[in-house]
Automatic annotation (TrEMBL), chains A, B:
One of its GO terms (biological process) is negative regulation of DNA-templated transcription. Its cofactor is Zn(2+). Binds 1 zinc ion per subunit. It comes from the Bacteria. Pfam families: FUR. This is Transcriptional repressor. The lineage of its organism: Bacteria, Bacillati, Actinomycetota, Actinomycetes, Kitasatosporales. InterPro entries: FUR (IPR002481), Fur_C (IPR043135), WH-like_DNA-bd_sf (IPR036388), WH_DNA-bd_sf (IPR036390).
Length: 138, 138
DNA sequence: TATTGACTTGGACTTGGTCCATCGTAGGAT
DNA sequence: ATCCTACGATGGACCAAGTCCAAGTCAATA
């Protein structure tokens, strides 16, 4: 995400302290924070930032394709900054930790024509579930 | 779902008018109702039924493995009575309609060991996305 | 360095869901 | 057939996640 702000500036984004902080908080690998977690970490760096701004900024990053929304549990959405390399998710059924994974082959190819109901199918999201090493031991 | 109530009675379930109505409402193919939609349809048949009871009953049916929860949009959970035949979901990005689909092969097999991070992986959920015939025309 | 339209704020509001004290009733016992 | 009682239903308060909006602020351009 390092050159993200420059990319966004080039697209006409006004760079504010709030947006910078949200982008910084999302930087890293295997990052899948909820909006509230982003707010919490952003507040540590910029105490005046508001909840609405965090939601606004996350929504904009999603619209611009810089971040993808992930829903693994029907509760809060999570925000994944690894938007430029296609991948799927592996979720621990015990503690909920999420890893980015790269399955072999194209999951789309597994859906026969007869199973497409006339849809123009364009994407496949896969969520693998299981126990992480820590939870399997417990 | 026709013999569902008998199966549940066998498991010690007390069969009430409310539970019967919820089970009836869920009967059918490609049914993926939200809790509120279940409540709405149940109310049409049994006006006194309460929201809490619908949630309780849906939760019990999920625990018993008779219904599966589906989250395709990060909003309301949906309840799928087709729990005994493994399948995946195809969701229209336009109108949100959901079809049950059966991909070829086992999606689990596509995840290489090197991508498992030591997890004991036990399941894979796939959500295919695209436009349904109606939305593609529009 | 002045201007201004885009951005931020906080609080009210909405939606989806859970909890709980109280009341009602299915189904076994008599 | 009726009685009992533990299990189930009720509705209203509560909670969590997210959206909306009117008013105030400020980044970037001139």
């Amino acid at each position: 995400m390092s050159d993200l702000l420059e990319r966004l500036r080039g697209r006409g984004w006004r760079v504010t302290a709030q947006r910078r902080v949200v982008a910084e908080v999302l930087d890293g690998d295997h990052i899948h924070l909820t909006a509230d977690e982003v707010l919490e970490r952003a507040t540590a760096r910029l105490p005046e930032i508001s909840r609405a701004t965090v939601y606004n900024t996350l929504g904009e990053l999603v619209t611009l394709g810089e971040v993808v929304e992930v829903t693994t549990d029907g509760r809060a959405k999570r925000y994944d900054p690894n938007a430029h390399r296609p991948h799927q998710h592996l979720v621990c059924s015990g503690c909920g930790i999420i890893r980015d994974v790269h399955p072999a082959g194209d999951p789309l190819a597994d859906l026969p024509d007869a199973e497409r109901f006339g849809f123009d199918v364009s994407a496949a999201e896969v969520t693998y579930r299981g126990l992480c090493p820590d939870c399997a031991r417990g």
